[in-house]
Structures are given as structure tokens and as C-alpha cells.
Queue: 2 jobs
Job 1
Amino acid sequence: MAALDNREFIQTAIDGHRHLDGALLPALHAIQDGLGWVPPEATPMLAEALNLSRAEVHGVISFYHHFRTTPPGRHVVQVCRAEACQAMGASALEAHAKRSLGADFGQTTADAAITLEPVYCLGNCACSPAVRIGDRIVGRVDATRFDALMAELREEATA
Ligand code: FES
């Protein structure tokens, strides 16, 4: 995302979707896809453009866990919590991920490298438990593999 600052980008995202019925969700997705999060200034801008109250906009942002209200780390790592993964040890993997990264779901590691998030099925159920690292989906992840993947990410960041 090049020269546009946050406000300009948000305005562009709003303008690109305001003609739609139910423009709020697609506009929010466009904002997060472009900026990596939904900055606080988006709420009043969306409310005004879409003729909604700020409380309504805030309600939608906070209802959907997908939307981030703080900037993500350099990498976003999602651990699947849906049924097939649960059956294959996702709870233990989740607990390990939180302990190992020192970050709860929705939080970013102290070195700003990794944001940990839950996700509900990555369509990779046959290879449970699954995680997504950016756009890459990895199956059959246990604690050892998880730590190796995180070490790779951190090496990339310092390379
Ligand atoms: S339940 Fe985890 S990938 Fe489908």
C-alpha cells in the first residue's frame, strides 16, 4: 500500500463500496485487507458515509473477530479451532502456541513478529490440526512443528 495515508485509504475503500446494499462489511474487509487492520478513524468515517451511528459501526467491528483493531505483527498466524482440528489435538496446539509465543489470541508477540489468531476451519480438515501462516496453510502441526515454523518466520524477519 503505497502513497495513501490511512484516512485516504479508508475513504477510497468506502467510496468503492458505498453504492452496495450492506456496504459496511465489504468496506471493512477492504480496509483490513489494505491496511492490515481497521484503524479507529474508520469508525466515524464509515458512520457518516453510510448513515449509521458510530455505535452501530463499532458493534459490527467488535462482533466479527476477523477484524483487528490494533495493527498486526509482521506475520499473522492462525490456529484452527474448528471440530476436525479439535478432534486431532488442536486444543493442545493452541495452548502450546499461546505459551510458546507469550501471546493470547488477538495479541502480538513482544518483538512485533507474530500475531496469533483463532480461525474456524481452513478447509484443510483431512490434515488436522491446521494452521495458516499468512497465505500458507500447513497441516498436521504439533508443538515441535509449530515452534520450527515460528523460528523460520523469525529468521525470515531478520534475514
Ligand atoms: S477443522 Fe481445521 S481445517 Fe477444517
Note: DSSP finds seven helices and four strands in the chain.
Job 2
Amino acid sequence: MIKQKLVLIGNGMAGVRAIEEVLKINPDGFEITIFGTEPYPNYNRIQLSKVLQGGTSVSDITLNEWEWYEDNKIRFYPGESVTSINTKTQSVSTDKGRIESYDQLIIATGSNPFMLPLPGADKEGVKAFRNIKDCEEMIEYSKIYKKAAVIGGGLLGLEAARGLLNLGMEVDVIHIYDYLMERQLDRSAGKLLQAELEKQGMNFILQKNTAEITGRKHVTGLKFSDGSKIKADLVVMAVGIKPNVALAQEAGLPVNRGILVNDYLETEIPNVFAVGECAEHRGIAYGLVAPLYQQGQVLAKRLCGIQDEGYQGSVLSTQLKVSGVDVFSAGKINEDEGTKVYKTYDDWHGIYKKVLIEDGKIAGAVLFGDTKDGNKLFNFIKTGARIEEYLQSAQSVESEENVAASMSDEELICGCNGVTKGSIVEAIKANGLTTFDQVKGCTNASRSCGGCKSLVSDLLACTLGDQYQADQKEAICSCTTLSRDEVLAEIREKGLTHIREVMNVLQWNTDGCSKCKPALNYYLGMIDPLKYQDEREARYVNERMHANIQKDGTYSVVPRMYGGVTTSEDLRKIADVADKYKVGMIKVTGGQRIDLLGVYKEDLPKIWSELDMPSGSAYSKGLRTVKTCVGENYCRFGTQDSIGMGIRLEKKFEGLNTPHKVKMAVSACPRNCAESGIKDVGIVGVEGAWEMYVGGNGGTHLREANLLFKFKNGDELVEMIGAFLQYYRESAKYLERTSAWVERLGIDHIREVLSDEFMVKEYNNRIDEALSVVQDPWKEAINNKNLLRDLYQTVKI
Ligand SMILES: Cc1cc2nc3c(=O)[nH]c(=O)nc-3n(C[C@H](O)[C@H](O)[C@H](O)COP(=O)(O)OP(=O)(O)OC[C@H]3O[C@@H](n4cnc5c(N)ncnc54)[C@H](O)[C@@H]3O)c2cc1C
Ligand code: SF4
């Protein structure tokens, strides 16, 4: 059957969710292409506040990894913007000169932050808070500057302000109204919120109109309409958003505030749909994910030809993601002549609760300080329940410990994703789920703002009863309930030899995902290195391609240079290849290697063959580099031959698969010029001996390595490194760095295990076995015609 060409403009939360829904209904129905201005895979924009507030990294908020696109055969063009739509020829053009035709087109271009047209708004240091780049820029600013001003005391402004406080800045929040979050809260709740945030260190300047942003090139402060001024080195504008409709407008699509769509997300032009913040449905352009996800579901059904009543609009609810502050609101928030209110105010504990009633039915709610009734009230608002129902349930809930237990099956647990208690309980029972992550993976609950995490955990506890405590093990992913140890035990006991076999025999509840497939591939290879046939398609993209994919879709090539040493001949070869293939940049890496950046996929095999140098494995979950210092032969302080030892280690362990990347370093004296203290395995030469350090990490989770042993003899050192690496290979979870593994097991325990000479020999036998089958992946790829054709000529990423 000929597949329809489905093109999505905008790789954001709404558009990609619509694609996920399409894939659920008809995984083979469409040839899908996605264009995204931002150079990242689809991420959770909501969680940017958490990234800014610390404790969450950008990589933690990815919703669909690069592999997801590939696994679903989606042609994804990151960092590429659609510049025009031709509705007559049914095609789109991009800023990279690409023209793509479509049978069905989805526009999901989101919103642009609204920037007040103030004098000085174009100065350096004036930012919006919308995407990863904004977030990263604010983090960089906080390292240099101290004073921040946030214009806008709404949800986004307050989340940004909290983040900037966490980054060590002094923060003024300027708001035009006399209380905060006036669109979601009433005056009482707004004032309580202000008091709480003031306690956290935020300063508020209310009822002020900003007239000008002062400074020459760079911002220095704000001037208000009453003539008063404040200083600021960074100004964040969080005053609202406007649907991003320019593209649609230019293509002649009817646009009001947003792109006009009917109940099926159809625009007035055939085969063109709009979803998310850029769309306007029945006069409303929504700015929260819950309605956008509902729209995505309807759109997917429409595209797949499933009859449905269409999208009927949404009731909204809001939560503020600032720790220590519980705020919730939904539906109507301010009373008028037609409404009555049920209100409680506990000034002592700072708890405020207001339920608005219209014709005896619950029409809205505002909660501050205690939001556990939020979901319940939201459900009541949506179903038009009577106030008596809430009052009864509130009484019974208060007498019960567990809110989750008292909820009805129809009640929503996760508002963002529309997941009810009933569907979660059913998923737990049907799939034997035992952990929060499994429920999240299986049902989508808690996959957006994360506000319902504790409710989901409570539901697990009350559904599983005693079993919950007993079964608190971490499954390797949501496709199975089995833990890593259980899977490994089953593979060994049953002699399983292929990923698919493992999944069939151990009754996986899906076809596998980008988390379990690479992990199984590693475990199978680790258990039986001599017989196991690596399943390349189960590897992450970098390892499958044997090159690092960069944000513009090109690759980087890093030839191996043992111990960081090269020759003039190799340098000449590298320079020639760089010229011939017009590589974007030649860069020396932190691991003392040369990185050729900006290489096109089709050129990879030619470059590898012309270089005729081994792969530097700069992409692999394996040994990357052994960094060395100058050492005894040249340095005045060196007491050992660090370069010689580095080369020996790198030659011995190159190509080894490990649970995560492994970096080593050898320094020839405690001055430690090779930074051995922050490596997975770091060696430091001292007078007449080598010290061996393990579990260091210089990356996101900085960790100083622990001294494991000290050796007089280089051979003993190499043997211990072999034993250490093999123990790590056998007992770490896939994707667990040595730093996390050493912390989990404890350095004393590892030292005890490796103090057993017999075990050291055993581990070395097993690692030698694994090393005996290692091949240079670049040579292997160049010599295999099928690989060349499948990977380097036809695969689109
Ligand atoms: C810091 C922050 C916190 C938030 N917190 C919450 C919250 O707690 N709860 C909640 O419900 N919502 C929250 N939101 C709002 C929520 O993130 C948005 O409603 C949602 O992301 C909108 O989804 P979308 O797909 O319509 O737009 P987006 O996610 O913005 O995606 C649109 C994408 O399209 C791309 N694009 C635009 N034009 C083109 C083009 N011509 N070609 C290619 N690509 C293009 C954009 O670069 C963007 O990546 C928050 C937003 C922010 C910024
Ligand atoms: S670590 Fe010591 S021996 Fe090595 S380069 Fe530095 S000072 Fe010289």
C-alpha cells in the first residue's frame, strides 16, 4: 500500500504528541517528515523551569530521543525551519533549500514570547523564557551578573524568577497588577503567594508600568512610568505569548489570533491542519499542554480516518512549579453576581481554599497551601458535579489517609495527559507494573509537568498493597517488569542468544524500546562475547554509525591516537582528508585527539578509508581515550613513563564494550596534568609506584575518583585495571557510569572483591575473551557492502 506523506512543521510538544498518537493507531500508514527550528529532539518545554531551577539537566527533559525518530522511520530535520507553504502544489520549503511535498500537513509552530516594545528592548541582556537556548543563556548570565529583573508576575515569570534565585541572582519581579498570577488566582491567593515567595527571597514591585530599559549596549536597569528606576543586568520578559502564525498567514490560511481550526483541527485549506498553541479553536488559542494533547488525539484519529465527535474545547487547570509553594486553580476563579462560594481560610497555616458554585454546580476552584483536592475539584468542574458531592467527599477524604484510594475510576490523575485513575490501575494490573517509571512509560501519566507523581506512587501503593513494598525493584524499562539482575539470570539460565528471543521468552509487553534494546544487546554480548552476534540496529545512533551525530545532522570523525600521541605523517593525512572533504572544523578534543567536525554521512566511509587509522571510538559505550601527561621522558617532575603506560592501556582495552563510556588518564606525578582524579580509571605515578583511582567523573555529575590500590609493578596495574573493568562490565546497569556504580556498590566493597587474587585472574580471563573478538569498526564498515549501502547511503536521520 502506498503510504501517505505526512509532514509536521514544528518539533514541539503538541505536534510530536499528535504524531505519537498517529503511530499508535496506524504505525505503517504514513511516511512521516518533521521539521524543527530547534536543533534538539522533542523535549518537555514545561520542565525548562526545572532545568533553570537546578537539579534537572537538559538531557533529562528529552521526551523522544534521536532513536525514536529512527525507530519509527521518521525523517527528522532538526535545526531546519520551514519558510513557506505552497498549498497549491502541496509542498513546503525550508531555509536549507529543501522542498518537501505532502499529502497531509500539520502546522504546530507553537508560540513566540511576547516582547514588550519598550525603548531599549533590543539591548543585550534582555531575554525571553521559551526554549533551551533561553534557559542556557540565563544560566550563563548568572555566572557573570548578579541583578535580575523579571517583567511579569504570572506563572512563567515566577518560575523564571525562582530559577534565577537558585542561580544565585537577586531578583525583582515587576508586575502591572496589584497581585500575582491574576489570570489564575484571586486576590487572596495571589497575596498569599506573594508572601510565600517573599520568604523565599523574591522582591516584588507591583502596580508598575515599565517605560524603558536603560543602558548603552547592555542593559543596566529599568525605568518605570512614574519615573522610579531599578538596576538590572538581566531582564527577563515573561508577559505572555502570541501564537506563531506568520508562516500560515503568508500561505493564505485564515488566521485570527491563532490559525483557525474546526473541531477536527482542519484549517480552511484541504489537507492542512493546525494543532497546539498556534491554533485557535472556537475563539481560544490554548497555552497549556493538556488541551494541546487532547487536540493531538483528535487530529490523529482524523488523519487515520477514525470517526470521533471531534475536539470540544477544554477546561483549564494550573499548577505553579515552584518548590515549597502549592497553588492550584481551575475553571472560574472570580465570583460575580451569579456565583456563590465555599471558602476556607486558615491564616495560621497559610491554607486557602475557594470553590465557586454556579446553579449549585462546581464551576471553579482556587487552592493555596494544600492542593491535594485539586484533581478532584478539576474532575467535578468538568463533570458539572454539585457542591454537596464535593463536601461529602472532602469529609471522607479527610478521614482517610490515602487520597488516591478514595478517588473514583473516572477521576483524572494526570491532567496534562488526560490519564484517569481507572486506566492507571488497569495498566498496573494487566502489565504487572511495580514502579513509577513503568506506569509513566505505559500510560503517559506524569510525562509532562510531573505534578501528579505522588498521586501515581500512591496509586501503585494502594493497588499493589503489601506487594508494593516487597516488589520495589527497578525494571530495566517499562516494556518489562523484570530488573536487570533478573534478565541477566534468565539469559544465563535459559541460554538466550538474541534480543528478540529474550523478549519473547521473558514475555516483554512491547516490541522493545530505545532503552531496553541497546541494554539487551550489551548484556547478551557481555555474557557470551565469543558467540554473540552484535545486533547493530539495536545500538544508539552514534554507535550504529560509528561517528558522532552533531546537531546539524552532520557527523564528526575522531581518529585514534594512542595515549594522545601522533606522528607528522598522520597529521598530514588528517589535514589532506580535511581539505578534500571540506570538513567544517578541526578541533583538538579534551581527550587529546583531533576531531574532524561537520562531515556528511555519505563521506564517512571514504574518509575512514583514506585516513586508514583506527577508530577513536569517540562515540562508544566503551573505552574512549587514555589521556596522558608528558611524563618522565620530557617533564622535570615526572617519575614514571605516563605516555608509555597510556599507550599500553589504550592498545589493550580499545574496542571493549562497557555499560557506559570509559575514560582513562595517566599522570606521571601527583601534579596530575592529565586530570587523573576525574576519570573512570585514573593512574598517578609516584616515586617507584603507580596509584590507581576509580569512579571519577568530570562531566555533569562531577565526582572525584577514589584510590583503589597502589602498585610497584606496571603489569600488576594493568591486570587490576582489567579486573576492575570486567567487574564493572558484569555488575553495572547499562548506561551506569563508573562514578554512579562505585557509589552504589561502595569503594570498600569493590576493593574487597578485587583483593581476591583468584577473582582478579577470573575477571582477566573473561575480559581477554571479550577483547579477543574486537575488530576495528571502521574497517568492518568499509569492507561490508550491505552496511555501506544501508547505513551510509540510505538511512535518513
Ligand atoms: C518555561 C515554560 C514552562 C511551562 N510550564 C507549563 C506548565 O506547567 N503546564 C503547561 O501545561 N504548560 C506549560 N508551558 C506551556 C507549554 O510548554 C506549551 O503549551 C507547549 O509546549 C506548546 O506546544 P506546541 O507544540 O504548540 O509549541 P512548542 O512546544 O513551542 O513547539 C513548537 C515548535 O515549533 C518550532 N517551529 C516554529 N516555527 C517553525 C518553522 N517554521 N519550522 C520548523 N519549526 C518551527 C519551534 O521552534 C518549536 O520548537 C510552559 C512553557 C514554558 C516556556
Ligand atoms: S603530571 Fe607531573 S610529570 Fe606529568 S606533566 Fe604534569 S608535572 Fe609533569
Note: The pocket of flavin-adenine dinucleotide (ligand 1) is lined by residues 9-15, 35-38, 45-46, 48-49, 81-82, 108-110, 129-130, 156, 159, 244, 247, 276-277, 287-290, 292, 321, 416, 449 (CB under 6 Å).
